[in-house]
Amino acid sequence: MSLLDSRLQTVLSLIPAGSILLDIGTDHCKLPAEGLRSGRLAGAYAADIKEGPLQAAKKQLAALGLSGKIPLYLSDGLKEIPPETLKQVTAVAVAGMGGEIIEVILDTAPAEPPLWVLQPMSAVYELLDALAQKGYAVTAGALARDGEKFYRVFAVQKTGIPYKADYFGMIRQDPLYFPFLEKEQRRVETALAGLCSAKAPDEGRIAEAEKLLDQIRKAMQ
Ligand SMILES: C[S@@+](CC[C@H](N)C(=O)[O-])C[C@H]1O[C@@H](n2cnc3c(N)ncnc32)[C@H](O)[C@@H]1O
Description:
Layout: H1 6-13, E1 19-24, H2 30-37, E2 41-48, H3 51-63, E3 72-74, H4 83-88, E4 91-97, H5 99-107, E5 116-120, H6 124-134, E6 136-146, E7 149-158, H7 177-196, H8 203-219
Helix pairs in contact: 5-6, 7-8
Bound molecules: S-adenosylmethionine.
S-adenosylmethionine is lined by residues 8, 24-27, 47-50, 53, 76-77, 95-97, 101, 105.
């Protein structure tokens, strides 16, 4: 049985088969462990900023008979990952964190990996805008669903060429595309109603929400 829920399974599906993965913010180490067990990954490393999650990862790997197979690092993003490890890595996953933290992790990486696979829990549009401004081309996108909750996953490669973000193009072929957009439309409509009924309406935020709603409606056509 897979160790992964649909969110992490979708993250794994965007990591090319045969990759050597570095999982940043690994916590329980489920993603690299399942990637190795299933044969999708050729190798894996994992890192976390806190000691507690690394201890949990160690226990998890021992229980799976994978002790020593996935080197674990205490590291803020990629900062403390040895250069010789970074040279081997072909894909870096950053999943289950806020978009702002993901952006900082990209900005502070001491070396640029061939591929990033990102799964933000919040600030998704802000992250997509930042990726576009910084010239990270989106090479693939996917959606995951867990009950009423949707998650977005995208793979990006740095080209250094800035572009205007297209929020939905990369998930257009996903079977969850329309259910996701319907949910997103309701969410933004509710947020907009709240912003408009505030005692001191914030015109900037209202304009942003209206713009996003317009993009969602266009994406649904
Ligand atoms: C919510 S868990 C996500 C675990 C797993 N990646 C997933 O998607 O299920 C977030 C993990 O990221 C770690 N983390 C947060 N900021 C980090 C950073 N700057 N560098 C490395 N790990 C970080 C936290 O300690 C925590 O274990």
